[in-house]
Every structure is written in structure tokens, then in C-alpha cells.
Design brief:
Number of helices: 10
Oligomer: single chain
Bound molecules: nicotinamide-adenine-dinucleotide
Distance between the termini: 48 Å
Helix content: 40-55%
Structural class: alpha/beta
Strand order of the largest sheet: 3-2-1-4-5-6-7
């Protein structure tokens, strides 16, 4: 039977989350999305108006179907944790049940279970600041949105993840090598995410036979990456220096995600898989 996937972190058709959804849909999976609450209205109206129809085209010519879009703010675990100013914020008041626990409950109510969980989200309010100029709040916010959000998602979805299922996230090599410009504690957040991938692989593997991996992706011109401000430089650098001298497409990451989510990867867990044209293997630029 077809598998069901929940992909957190899709709010347009430019990012890795969208490409992962497409590759999973092309492989026959049913697609559920979690979209950041402040971005939900634009995303849903664009979907309805057909703005994404061209990018919904799958290799067989059909359009990717999105069964349901859930509002999500992965910084909050349950409604009791949400501060008053967010509860009453205009951009949040129009939606409900968008904390991680509530979304997992809604998915359970609607569909019973899922087979594939994807975390394709990150946020660091001070990402443009060097680490030495990052505030405690900025650092903790980066970890909360980009690392703990994954722990929380997996924790709350684990009871409805079917045994044999797969969970994955997206990381970046700034966790282990110096990438000036990837600041605000985002490099720290990715280091935490990669370490957590190993510990969570153990815990979720033993508890429910779930595999946990992360894809270390090369640079892509996504909305989030543009906000960092150095994406063109990173893309040019990769094309100039990587073993494979081509621009990385989101689809290549999507396909790797589909592989990791499939039975073809049934013995792969706790790993960081580089999907970056090989740039990680270089010691110097040439
Ligand atoms: P993107 O903008 O498509 O995705 C980021 C998403 O996170 C957005 O949809 C945003 O709305 C969502 N988001 C932010 N805060 C959230 C919150 N609190 N709750 C729920 N959703 C929230 O950009 P992307 O670059 O495709 O990012 C996806 C993942 O890929 C991230 O983990 C990112 O770090 C990683 N990544 C990106 C690159 C790159 O060059 N673009 C490289 C390596 C890894």
C-alpha cells in the first residue's frame, strides 16, 4: 500500500521541503504538509489559485496532490506554552491547533498514522550576525526553531509513525566546518541537529523501529537561504570547487530523501548523508 508522509516546513515551491514532497509523491506517497502559521494564508491561496501548478508537475506528467496542509509553529510544543502576544497576534488568531502536539493529534484523528516524517525547517533571528555578536536569546531561538523543533516533532509523531518508517531532517555543513556568514547560532543548531540524529536513531529505533537520518544539503536559492544573504556566493563557490561542477537542484535532494525514506534504505539510520555535489570532501578550493 502507498505510504503517507508528513513534511514540516513547506511554504512555497522553492525550498527543499517542496522538492522532497514531489519526490515522495512521484514514488507514490500521500502528502501532508505542515506550514508555518504566518506563511499559511499566502501558501494556501497560491496553491488554490494555481500559482504552483507548473512546479506540481511530476515526472509522469500528473500534478502532485497535497492531501492536507496543517498550520504549524514548531517552536511551541503545546497550547499551554504559547505566550499571550502570539495567541492574540492577527497572523495566528485565524488558525488553531498549530502547536506540535496538536498537529500530531490532528494528523492522528484525520489519518491514524504516517510512515514518513520530514523536518525541513530552520529559523535563526540573528543568522546574519557573527557568533561573537549573537545574543543569548538569538542563539536559543535558533536552537529552539532549528534543533529542538525536530526533537519535539519526532517525539509527538513517534506514536503514530508506523514501525519500519523513516524520519529525516535537513542540515548544513556549517555544523562541522567554518562557514563565515552562517551565524546567529545556526551553525550550533545544525551541530545539535546532527548529534541528535544519532541519539534519536537509537531511541526511535529501539522504541518503534523507526530510522532517523539527516541530509547535509548543498546551497539552494530558497526563501530561507536568501534571507541569510550569502547564497549566491555559496552557489558560485560550490560550482567552482566541488568535484561535480554543476548547480545543485532541489530535486536531487528530494530524490535522496525519497531513497532514505524507502525500504531501499532499510539498514540506514543515524547517518548524515551529504547531497552536495561532493563539496564536503574537498580540503581546499581549487
Ligand atoms: P525554506 O524557506 O523553503 O524552508 C524553511 C521553512 O521553515 C519555511 O517554509 C518557513 O516557513 C519554515 N519555518 C520557519 N520557522 C518555522 C517554525 N517555527 N515552525 C514551522 N515552520 C517554520 O528554505 P530551505 O532552505 O529549503 O530550508 C529547509 C531546510 O533545509 C532547513 O533545515 C535548512 O537549514 C536546510 N538547508 C538549506 C540549505 C540551503 O542552501 N537552502 C542548505 C542546507 C540545508
Amino acid at each position: 500500500k502507498g505510504k503517507r508522509a508528513f513534511i514540516a516546513g513547506v511554504a512555497d515551491d522553492n525550498g527543499y521541503g517542496w522538492a522532497i514532497a514531489k519526490s515522495l509523491a512521484a514514488a507514490g506517497a500521500e502528502i501532508l504538509l505542515g506550514t508555518w502559521v504566518p506563511a499559511l494564508n499566502i501558501f494556501e491561496s497560491s496553491l488554490r489559485r494555481g500559482k504552483f501548478d507548473e512546479s506540481r508537475v511530476l515526472p509522469d506528467g500528473s500534478l502532485m496532490e497535497i492531501t492536507k496542509v496543517y498550520p504549524l509553529d514548531a517552536v511551541f510544543d503545546n497550547y499551554e506554552d504559547v505566550p499571550e502576544d502570539i495567541k492574540t497576534n492577527k497572523r495566528y488568531a485565524g488558525s488553531s491547533k498549530w502547536t506540535v502536539k496538536e498537529v500530531a493529534e490532528s494528523v492522528k484523528e484525520d489519518f491514524g498514522s504516517i510512515d514518513i516524517l520530514v523536518h525541513s525547517l530552520a529559523n535563526g533571528p540573528e543568522v546574519t550576525k557573527p557568533l561573537l555578536e549573537t545574543s543569548r536569546n538569538g542563539y536559543l531561538a535558533a536552537l529552539s526553531a532549528s534543533s529542538y523543533s525536530y526533537v519535539s516533532l519526532l517525539k509527538h509523531f513517534l506514536p503514530i509513525l508506523n514501525p519500519g518508517g523513516s524520519s529525516l531532517s535537513l542540515t548544513y555543513i556549517a555544523s562541522e566546518r567554518i562557514i563565515p556568514g552562517y551565524g546567529g547560532g545556526m551553525s550550533s543548531a545544525k551541530a545539535a541537529l546532527e548529534s541528535d540524529t544519532r541519539v534519536l536513531a537509537f531511541e526511535a529505533g529501539r522504541k518503534r523501529k523507526i530510522r532517523v537520518n539527516t541530509i547535509s544539503a548543498g546551497p539552494l536559492r530558497s526563501r530561507a537561504a536568501k534571507a541569510i544573504g550569502f547564497i549566491e556566493k555559496m552557489i558560485d563557490y560550490s560550482i567552482a570547487n566541488a568535484p561535480l561542477q554543476k548547480e545543485l537542484s532541489a530535486e536531487e535532494v528530494g530524490n535522496a530523501a525519497a531513497f532514505l525514506s524507502s525500504p531501499l534504505a532499510s539498514a540506514i539510520t543515524g547517518t548524515v548523508l551529504y547531497v552536495d555535489n561532493g563539496l564536503n570532501a574537498m580540503g581546499v578550493g581549487v
